[in-house]
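Protocol step 4 of 6: structure prediction from sequence.
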Amino acid sequence: MSNEKYTATITLPRGTLDLTYQINTATKRIEDESYQLEDLLGFAQRINPKRAFLFVSKVLGRHIPVAPSTMRSAFTDLADLVPNDLPEPILVIGMAETAVGLSAGVHQALQTRYPNALLLNSTRHAQHNDSDTDALLTTFSEDHSHASQHLIYQSKDKVTQAQLLASKTLIMVDDEASTGNTCVNVVTALRNAGLTQLEQVHLTTLVDWSLAQNQGEADADDAVSDQVAKRLPNIDFYRHHLLSGAWKWTDAPNPKPITMPSVDTTEAGSHALGNTGNWGRFPTLNSKDGFDNYLENFQTAFTLFNKQTSFDKAELPKKILVLGSNEFVWLPFLLAEWLENQAIAQSQDSGTISTVNFSALTRSPIAIGGAITTMLSFSDNYGLGMTNFAYNVDPNEWDLIVLCLETSADSVDGMWKGLDNVLIVSPT
């Protein structure tokens, strides 16, 4: 970590965000350069009275479309910061909805060193199956979020469940950290649920803003770690990130009052979840479970969409956007990555270059401005009766939009069905 401090000021409609940050020189990108602030983040205004601003990731594929290869590099670079020789069993846990793809990517990279590490994501979608009603392990709250309640499920497999409960190292993955409160809430809930053998917690984030608690201290990194550690007795606490710093928010004079849409629910919804395998809502060693079937569904749908006899004979469109939906982003990301590799191979054979980007539908309410240039709003595909959004997505800019669902194809809002360049891929 570099000791050099940088500053930035971002003016948003509801106030001003002042940043002090440090570059992590342990991460190396193209041409041996570390991640800079502008590589990782844009900024926007939340429609949320709890916190008026949002750090908008440029490498996460959530609110800004991004190349899958860029996302993969960030996943791997973050995982590489996690040290060797950690006490096992290891549990990697990701935070819904924003970080469920990030956690799977970090987990997959970590498995080159820790092949038996488990992946488990929190969720805000109660599982439909009757057999899952007793599978809830614990719940916790993310206090500043637009949707604060999270569910964590246990495994039906006795061996996997025993490994989960025996975890000695927890690697908590999130897009950003601000106070450390969510980490403390998660660890406390897991310990109360039976993970009593935890020895180490590694808070692993793209950006860590928790230095904001200790801006005047000479070694704020250690000071923040000490503060969190005091709230987690008998656990060694560590932090890993691509960039770290402190933020200070100043409200604008007399800001207009805002009303946040109702999105804080953990109900199942009226549209059942299809079978997409287990990619992390339940503890798993293999986050690619279900991908082969989903890829086959895409190839079949694409062949019909293009009126071709087989996928092998089809030429990819010039500009392709793959969209995940809410928490269902990992298999869609793997599909986007597969398409990106297909596009590279196609360009070598024919000289035709196709661009593939990835993004996702979300329940997060964000105002237009700053890093958010466009917003599509529509009813959710889970049957929860809430508004969902797609940011920085202009359908006219893409030759093909692949909308990936874990619900049936007829569950999507009519807006998507009315676009002739949208291909819907679902489990059924």
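Step 5 (inspection) to follow. The mean pLDDT is 89.
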